Amino acid sequence: MDKMLEIKNLQKKFGDHEVLKDITAEVDNGQVICVIGPSGSGKSTFLRCLNLLEEPTSGKVIFEGQELTNLKEAQLDVLREKMGMVFQSFNLFPNMTVLDNITLAPIKVKKIEKAKAEATAKELLDRVGLAEKADAYPASLSGGQQQRVAIARALAMNPDLMLFDEPTSALDPEMVGEVLEVMKDLAKSGMTMVVVTHEMGFAKEVADEVWFMDEGYIQEQGTPTEVFDHPTSERAQSFLAKIL
Ligand code: ADP
Ligand code: MG
Known about the structure:
By secondary structure, the protein is of the alpha/beta class.
């Protein structure tokens, strides 16, 4: 199966406010998609609709061949475990060590044996360059380190798809690079990723496609070169002129 995710005529309204009007798109296995667009254009809402953290008003989200928009909560939970999510604010549990933050869901939700979950967590910490921080508490870490722990925590559930919502935009500039490096490694390892980000260097290096969202639609969709260097719509041109 090539297609990991199919989004068909997705619409999302909050009351009368139609944030997503009609979005149809696909993500293939192993693809990296970067979603860009102005503040308030519905990027976070879109991402949250993909794992049904937000219930679409209409349309379909099909993940690994299963229509999420048609499933009962219990079935949905099983599929949600396969979709990791990383937010702008790292959301680590402050009263738990780094290791416990990472092993909590595997132990509680997936019923993985503690020793095994800890071994996996340590491997993941090593992968994000934080092997020595297993016993640290989040407050003692920098923002960049916390975000790398948040990525390790999401990976601990062994997801097939990773969703990132502006993972570097709350970080001090000097910490952005270390988080992007981890994400680049992940992309190169073949992980399927949908990343809301305005980090053009990252998008150019690893994105297979860039989707420009505005006014409730994906207005432009193409390779980074196509979208960044040759945007066709006026909206994309003026947005890119502001951020590039
Ligand atoms: P972006 O991530 O592109 O900045 P958002 O998806 O956060 O955009 O928001 C898009 C629009 O939807 C905004 O106008 C926002 O106020 C509105 N919105 C988002 N979540 C809710 C909600 N839970 N209730 C009402 N309006 C919302
Ligand atoms: Mg947002």
